[in-house]
Structure formats: C-alpha cells, structure tokens
Amino acid sequence: MRRIAITTPNVMAALRKLDRNRARPYNFAISPVLVNLSNEAITLLGHFEKDPSKWRTIRYVNICDGSVHTLNPPTLLALPQTFEMIFSQYHRHPEYKSLAPDGSACQSDTKGLLRRCHIVSTGIRLIGKETERAWEQVDDVSTLLPSLTRYGTSNVVLRPDELAALRKIPLNVLDRTGLSRHTIVRARKQQQVHTRALKRLRQFVSGRSTK
Known about the structure:
This protein is α+β, with helices and mostly antiparallel strands. The chain is built from 6 helices and 11 strands. Strand 5 (60-62) and strand 6 form a beta hairpin.
C-alpha cells in the first residue's frame, strides 16, 4: 500500500466520489500496489486508512475511469500485491543483465559465477526527460502514472522536398517564423528539432509555395 498526497484537482475530484467531506487539498490517500490481470488501465485510490485490516474492504476509485471498486469482494481483474508475492518473484527472478557461466542467457535456476552481458545499440531515441520531476516526492500521484515523452525520428526532420524548399528561402525571411536562427539552421542541416518548431517551418514553407 502506498501513501499519496492530494495535490491535483483530478485526484481530489475522484476521491470526492467516495466521500466529499474527506477529500481535501493536501490530505493523504492510499493506493494499493496491484497485479493487473486485465487489459484496462487501473490505478486505485482510497481515503487514508491506518488500519491494514480494513484495506481490503474499503472502497477505492479508479482514477482512470472514475469507477468505484473494492478488493474484497474483488470487483476488478487485479490482485493486491503482498510481501509474499514480491519475495517469491524476487527469489526466482532471472538476472537479465548478466550471462550464465556457459555464456547463455540466465534462467531462474542459474548458478555459479555470472559473466558480463555485452549490449549492442541498434539506435538512438530522444527522450524528453529521464524522470518526472514530481517523482522526487514519494507522495505525488504522478509516481503511479509515469509518462515519459519519447520522440521518434520520423517526425522531427523535414522530408527531402520540404528541405529543398527551405534551403531556397533566405535566413532573414525565415526569421519571420519566430523561431531562433539556431533552430532554423539545424532544420536546414537535417538535424532533429522540436516537433512544434518543425510544424511551424512546414507551414511557413507550404504557405510560400502556394503563393
């Protein structure tokens, strides 16, 4: 069970479905660690309760869809994790970062001195942030809903026809886009730029080609 602080309006609105008077800013809520057996997003929040014997019977709200559930009797295809479950998984968990003594992949019953596992990179993917800033605060609800921004490579560079048209336009004219000269030069060199900047350049080039 995790303790979560009510720091955002959507969390407070969800908890008010359970009890409007108890859901107040900066109060605490609880969230069970679940083993999700369904294909639906499940993140349960309930009003703060110190007595562990009541955790299975109190009501929780799924902040993903606003539905209300209980753990006992179960109303979702999800199981609350226990220390016994975590220990059993850890005890039989393969060491994926290393190789077995014979050079094969580690299994749950591998024994002996492990070998180093060499990794070959197949590409580079730009990620907006390595971690969410709110993750530094253990009580923040964002720790339950991690969302890292991953940028692909297909939508951060110009197409060959767009690149040719962009290079024909003088830099002093491209300054009218409101973008920095550094961003414009990077785009003309077929280097990655922010998606919003690329969209603005495409609109500008398209607008000049239609005149």
